[in-house]
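Note to self: the last two entries modelled the partners one at a time, which told us nothing about the interface. This time every component goes in together.
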Amino acid sequence: MSEEKLSFQAEVSRLLDIVANSLYSNKEIFLRELISNASDACDRLRYAAITQPVLSAEDSDFRITLALDKKAKSLTVADNGIGMNRGDLVANLGTIARSGTAAFVEEIEKTEGSLGLIGQFGVGFYSAFMVADRVEVSSRKAGDAQGWRWVSDGKGEFTVTATEDAPARGTRVTLYLRKDAKEFLEAARLRQIVTTYSDHIAIPILLEPEGKAGVEMDGEAERVNSAAAIWTRPKSEITDEQYKEFYHHVGHTFDEPWLRLHFKAEGVIEYTGLLFVPSTKPFDLFDPTRRHRVKLYVKRVFITDDCEDLLPPYLRFLRGVIDTEDLPLNISREMLQHNPMIAKIRNAVVKRVLGELKKKAQKTPEDYAAFWNNFGAVLKEGLYEDSGQCEALLGLARFRSTAGDGLVSLADYLGRMKEGQESIFYITGDDFDSLAKSPQLEGFAAKDIEVLLLTDPVDEFWLPAVGAFENKPFKSVTRGGTDLGKIKAAGDTAAAADGEVQEQAAGLNALVAFVKLTLKDEVKDVRGSERLTESAVCLVADEGDLDIHLERILKQHGQLNAAAHRILEVNPKHPLIRRLAERVGESGAGEDLEAAARLLLDQARILEGEPLADPAGFAKRMSEMMARGLSE
Ligand code: ADP
Ligand code: MG
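The predicted structure of the combined assembly is written out below.
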């Protein structure tokens, strides 16, 4: 059969350019990547063979073999795992299926090949091109007669050819090493790399004596790893480094783990878990197709990394394994769905993870803040998805607030509530800076009442679902009344003398009535404001209506057409409003007063970051008003 030439997916080409030209000092990690893939391939075949024993019947001793050829300057990594057919080779070694890769490539190009990122992300198979200028992959898929050969120099194209020279089953990756990578032709160097990065691999890694290649066992090869599933070993015998290397392998991620949980449950259900929380945020954390990355094993046999019920989506940042004794080895994917045993394990593991997070939050709040900044927005999904853990999650939640730069807990907030304050006040928006300047916060600032500043889209969803914390309702400062009058505050400058207040009120009522008449159905209502102290106007939502920010999010997503009309609040203490109130009293309606009413509404819209309905009209009125002001 003839050779077929194919191009890499554009993203892969860009990635390969970065990889080949990177001065990444840790080039040796290519071996970890190839061994990791070989181990995954064996795991997958072992699982497939549970239902189709013929697949591995002829050779069921899974192993990974390393072989050197100094003359050809090549290093071979071979496995007798599941193997790849033509389609697999093209799809797996020609594209990048992993979500988040596009974002990664963009990020790395922006930062001009930031090496830390390569290390963190892990370029998988393609890391072979850090040390090789030509890579050959020969593979025969378990159960197939035909073998295939994939060859590339990593420069835009690769070829695929049918071949007789493939392993009996599995994959053989041969690297023709670059001049600057000759060190990887030394057996001692390979031994050292394997013990550093791949000791935890649960199947034997063998080093062939020079001049032999392939996976055929002949008893001469030297075993280089200890090959025991790390989670089955006693904690005291495992070093931090070993844990870390396992985390890199199992998580396909390359940062430092932020938290490690290694536990064994015995009793009604028996399982072992080794779980990690990463210290950096994956690029695809909010990709809707992303699932958790915890692998399910049954009695040391890999079953799947795709068991949706094993952990809830709001813990999708976890990596690691759960290995249970209590499921049958031949469990199918269908049987895993709604499986009561899995549900029990999930509940217990969720409790354990949240318990551990709570400890971290109490013992090392600063360290916890780093975790929260990475994954808080994900954890908050649990507030409406998992009512059983809502209490625990509210305890773990942290927020920015008007009280300072740090993160506060709800307990902190409750402790600082003012006399007469019944609600937990919050405001939602896109970013802290503009939120902190919202006019709706003025009255709260004047009374030194703390307001939570919420900027995650998920906040709009859990707040209405949760409703309250320790019987104190959550209340948006941009919706409904404020009850500010009922709250006593230390620095409260007592209300002005009664007479003045009433006099003001009379003028204000006339102004409010006039503005309402002028703006007609452009606003739902107009009223005097309790929450403003500095600004003249602001918009708020009515008690039963959608919060302004949520409405904007829904509008952006095209889920909402007509905005529920806003309430325009005017600040009775503001000089502009007082002057306007006087004018309404003196001269009644007039064209310039109408223009003023419209300008008030437009001003409030601008403050809210909302587009103006009639920008040309706004500019005209504004110019006329300014011209008049200047000529007086
Ligand atoms: P990852 O391992 O994170 O999926 P890689 O770039 O390391 O990404 O590998 C890409 C894909 O190529 C793997 O997901 C797998 O499907 C396939 N693959 C790589 N090496 C092997 C192998 N030795 N045997 C079978 N499949 C392999
Ligand atoms: Mg890999």
